[in-house]
Structure formats: C-alpha cells, structure tokens
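User: Can you predict the 3D structure for this chain?
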Amino acid sequence: MISTKDVQATSSSPKKTLSPGQHTVKINSIGLESVSYKAGAYHLILNVEGPDMGSEFEGFLVDKDKPNGARYKGQIGKVKFGFYPFSDGETKTGIKISRDLSILRAIQQLCIAGNKLEWFEEADGKFATIEDFVKGANVIIADGTLFNMCINGKEYEKNGYINYDLFLPKSSKDAYALESATASPSKLIAYNPELHIKKAKVETVESFGDSNPFKTETDTSTGFEF
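Assistant: Here is the predicted structure, written as structure tokens:
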C-alpha cells in the first residue's frame, strides 16, 4: 500500500529577493561600488525594495547583526544602473568618456523620475568629488518615492542554485529603464526574458537561490547594457 505519511509539505513562501522583470520599487539607498578588474571604475548601485508583502512575509533583516531587529517588508534587490561600470575611456571612434559625467547623467535620470531635478540643478558646485555627490544624492533619492523599473538579470550559479546579478537596461528616447510609478502614459521598457536575461552556462539546476543581495559595502557603478 502507498502511504502519504512520510511526504513532507514543501514551502510555498515567496522569495525574499527580486527577480528580473518589471517592478514597482522604492530606493532604500544608492552608492558607488568599485570593481576589481579596472582601477577607478564604479558601478552605481540602487538598493531597492518591492511592495509590502503582508504580515506572513518574513523578509531579510535590515541589519544582519540584529537578529531581533526590523525586517524588510518587501522583496529586495541590489540593482546596478547598467551592465558595465562607469569609467574614463575613449570609444573606437575617439570620443572621450568621462566616468564622473556618466555617473552624473545617471543621477540626473533618477532625479527626473523621482521629481527631484531641482535638487540636482541646485547641487551644481556644491560637492568636491563624485563620491561626495552620490552621498548627497542618496539622502534626496532614498525618501520612499516609488519608481517603475525594468530589471535585467545575469544568471550565475552558486552552490547549485541560480541567482541573478541585477542591472538596468539602457534607456532610449522612446523607452525608459526607470520612471515614476505615477507616470502616465508609461514609457517603461517592456520586459522580455529572451532579451533581458543573460544566461549562465550550467549543467543542471534543481532550484533557485534566495541569498540576500544587500551588503555592507556602499560604493558602486555602471552604465551600459550587454
């Protein structure tokens, strides 16, 4: 006879992290993160959180060193502003690329979407370095304002699970990687997993990981899609 007594119930709890797709999120913080393979290059990181998932949802701890402390109420994600880091350089056609100017343009996009362009314009000449500018912008942008985002993902395997390195696609004049959650009509880039997921080279995967993407380091950067 077949017995069902030893069959354990599987968990149907939602993931604690955001997956690639279209999401409405708030930005908890922004920062610059250096990369090991290119001196002086930065990713601009957006630490985002999705909508409140309700009382049954147990999100990651806000402070991992306080086990009885507050938890995130929504799914979280560490999103790079673009696939490649921002850096000084020159294109094949000889056009000079400025790391700091590229990061300022990214901050400007955030300010436009968050209705904070006035702060951006008044910040002219107030900060000595790009690092200081981003710290100043963090205070203004991370205020609970809601954004719509199209979030891409690069798969990577860790301990037999597939996770995602999250980043924004490149905006165009007709479609944006992020916008105000109240934008009407919306011009958000339409998410397409065939276009917006960069696949990992793995043999087999049994399930998906759920590691906390937030880290204590707060310095980041990026700018281009793959």
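Residues 21-208 form one domain. The chain is about 15% helix and 25% strand.
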